[in-house]
Amino acid sequence: MPHASLISVHSQDDRLTVAGRGAWTSEYADELEQAVDNTAHTYAHPKGVEIDLSAVERMDTFGALLFERLKRSWKGTGVEPQVKGLAPRYKVLIEEMGRMGQEQPPPARRHEAILERFGHETVNVAADAAALLNFVGASVAAMGRVLLRPRSFRFTAMVNQLDRVGLRAVPIIILITFLIGCILAQQGIFNFRRFGADIYVVDMVGVLVLRELGVLIVAIMIAGRSGSAYTAELGSMRMREEVDALRVMGFDPVEVLVVPRLLALIIALPLLTFIGSMSSLLGAGLVSWGYGGITPDVFLDRLKGAIDMDQFNVGMIKAPFMAATIGIVACLEGLRVGGSAESLGAHTTASVVKAIFLVIVMDGVFAMFFAAIDM
Amino acid sequence: MDARTSTTAEATNHREAIISVHDIVVGFGDRVILNHLDLDVYRGEILGFVGTSGGGKSVLTRTILGLVPKQSGTVEVFGQNLDDLSERERSALERRWGVLFQQGALFSSLTVKQNIQFPLRENLHLSQRLLDEIAYTKIEMVGLKYDVAEKLPSELSGGMIKRAALARSLALDPEILFLDEPTSGLDPIGAGEFDELIRTLQQTLGLTVFMVTHDLDSLHTVCDRIAALADGKVIAQGTIEDMMAQQHPWLRAYFHGTRARAVQSGRR
């Protein structure tokens, strides 16, 4: 018998003597469970049972629970086991176990099936859109109130946010846009050279960076960097009831928390877009010089001819709208965080994904718009 | 495996120190929090630990648990110096204590049942049936209903969170239980029940309890011994009567203040 060390059974005329031995504790719980189940299964219908626990050195809840299981399996067949040799210090524990397990366990938490989740998600898309519109309204209304009572505007909070999302983002924005400029120029020169059209790389980079890429790269960077921070900040404030605290003190959370953040982004993003575009052009210029042999004065001359104020304006006009989108999505997701760490994570992810998606959709809409007005 | 046999002689030496803190110094930067502190906790007792706010009660608890680095001194638990242990010995030792954090610290993405089963799954190889039985037993032991098992911590009230967290800290049948302000945030009835529960569990499971608390009721009803911390040292230890007789100004203010008098007059 493999588990003789913990339980040994002596059977005589259908009367069982079950002797426990050793440590009936958590470390041996798996062996003990098998021994208990084996014993109960092998000797299912005894006439009488005596359980001797005098050789059990130690016992904890695990041992006591399994002992109770053994006892109940025989009680179920109408035999009341006699227990002897139980150390006095374990008496309370055994009695406690005897009282347990009267309730029915609740049904397990259900996980949604794929189709069910698909349905829920589809319904959620509509609810999300409504919530977003609702929040745009609340933000605009809060800004309106601030305009009516300029003294209530939290200028310090906005400057603080401006520092965090604007100034401190400058180094990474410069680095990334610089690299993008370099890559664009290198690819342009490499491919255009086959047609002897290397010089057109300046036109391509100028238009592409100023109209589209500068603002898009910066907006995506900021959605990842500051949008996620907004969501996490507001989300953890909601988890710790700070948002409720504001509300019961008579403040509008949108006015106190959202408006300064939103305005900070709307101011910062065009500035960052400008810095990013310049840095991109610098990168393109340097690569054109080093890799393509286009000297800086030729590059600048060509650039002047290729672009006009319209190209620059197209990029800059888009920036504040993208900023507002990122800010609104991020703050909304933050204020929808529930009680758990998992929910905070889910909403932060949703914030970044939705913000980037909407920024790109918006860029497409703007492209159609500018094409329609010949800009 | 000495871990399995070392506890058999428990009844023979009644005043065996299960936690022994000697000459501990802990500080952050220039600030010294614990200044050459000594403290013994004896097997089978409930020790109440009191002290000024920000005086280092939690720091001492966290130092014993190894969450805060100490500058000098030794911590012995079960007679083993924590600094001398290998990683494996250390994790074997950590299975023998349970901790109830002040806010419960339940994992917010797991249900109560999964929270309780978490340490079991990591440390033992048990069948699903036994895991469930153990979880429900612990839930019942801490006085909760079975239907909380499938709930997430965010769906529970403050008192239920404390009880569920206690169930998790008891999951592996520890020998020492650390409680950080177990009754804070509970109503007086709930706090009284919680004290009662700790007393019952301590007797049922033979626990040693180290309890950081501010609750004068707990100190009077459940603590066998009290240690008081001030100026980075243990300034007094003994039974509640010993503490009442102390002349230290802070202890007099603590045990003879208006709230203390209210507790006592309620007792007579």
From TrEMBL, chain A:
<dbReference type="Pfam" id="PF02405">
    <property type="entry name" value="MlaE"/>
</dbReference>
<feature type="transmembrane region" description="Helical">
    <location>
        <begin position="209"/>
        <end position="232"/>
    </location>
</feature>
<dbReference type="InterPro" id="IPR002645">
    <property type="entry name" value="STAS_dom"/>
</dbReference>
<dbReference type="GO" id="GO:0005548">
    <property type="term" value="F:phospholipid transporter activity"/>
</dbReference>
<keyword id="KW-0997">Cell inner membrane</keyword>
<feature type="domain" description="STAS">
    <location>
        <begin position="5"/>
        <end position="98"/>
    </location>
</feature>
<keyword id="KW-0472">Membrane</keyword>
<keyword id="KW-1003">Cell membrane</keyword>
<comment type="function">
    <text>Could be part of an ABC transporter complex.</text>
</comment>
<keyword id="KW-0812">Transmembrane</keyword>
<comment type="similarity">
    <text>Belongs to the MlaE permease family.</text>
</comment>
<dbReference type="GO" id="GO:0043190">
    <property type="term" value="C:ATP-binding cassette (ABC) transporter complex"/>
</dbReference>
<dbReference type="InterPro" id="IPR003453">
    <property type="entry name" value="ABC_MlaE_roteobac"/>
</dbReference>
<feature type="transmembrane region" description="Helical">
    <location>
        <begin position="312"/>
        <end position="335"/>
    </location>
</feature>
<dbReference type="InterPro" id="IPR030802">
    <property type="entry name" value="Permease_MalE"/>
</dbReference>
<feature type="transmembrane region" description="Helical">
    <location>
        <begin position="253"/>
        <end position="275"/>
    </location>
</feature>
<dbReference type="InterPro" id="IPR036513">
    <property type="entry name" value="STAS_dom_sf"/>
</dbReference>
<keyword id="KW-1133">Transmembrane helix</keyword>
<protein>
    <submittedName>
        <fullName>MlaE family lipid ABC transporter permease subunit</fullName>
    </submittedName>
</protein>
<feature type="transmembrane region" description="Helical">
    <location>
        <begin position="355"/>
        <end position="373"/>
    </location>
</feature>
<feature type="transmembrane region" description="Helical">
    <location>
        <begin position="169"/>
        <end position="189"/>
    </location>
</feature>
<feature type="transmembrane region" description="Helical">
    <location>
        <begin position="129"/>
        <end position="148"/>
    </location>
</feature>
From TrEMBL, chain B:
<feature type="domain" description="ABC transporter">
    <location>
        <begin position="19"/>
        <end position="256"/>
    </location>
</feature>
<dbReference type="InterPro" id="IPR003439">
    <property type="entry name" value="ABC_transporter-like_ATP-bd"/>
</dbReference>
<dbReference type="Pfam" id="PF00005">
    <property type="entry name" value="ABC_tran"/>
</dbReference>
<comment type="similarity">
    <text>Belongs to the ABC transporter superfamily.</text>
</comment>
<keyword id="KW-0813">Transport</keyword>
<dbReference type="GO" id="GO:0005524">
    <property type="term" value="F:ATP binding"/>
</dbReference>
<keyword id="KW-0547">Nucleotide-binding</keyword>
<keyword id="KW-0067">ATP-binding</keyword>
<dbReference type="InterPro" id="IPR027417">
    <property type="entry name" value="P-loop_NTPase"/>
</dbReference>
<dbReference type="InterPro" id="IPR017871">
    <property type="entry name" value="ABC_transporter-like_CS"/>
</dbReference>
<protein>
    <submittedName>
        <fullName>ABC transporter ATP-binding protein</fullName>
    </submittedName>
</protein>
<dbReference type="InterPro" id="IPR003593">
    <property type="entry name" value="AAA+_ATPase"/>
</dbReference>
<dbReference type="GO" id="GO:0016887">
    <property type="term" value="F:ATP hydrolysis activity"/>
</dbReference>
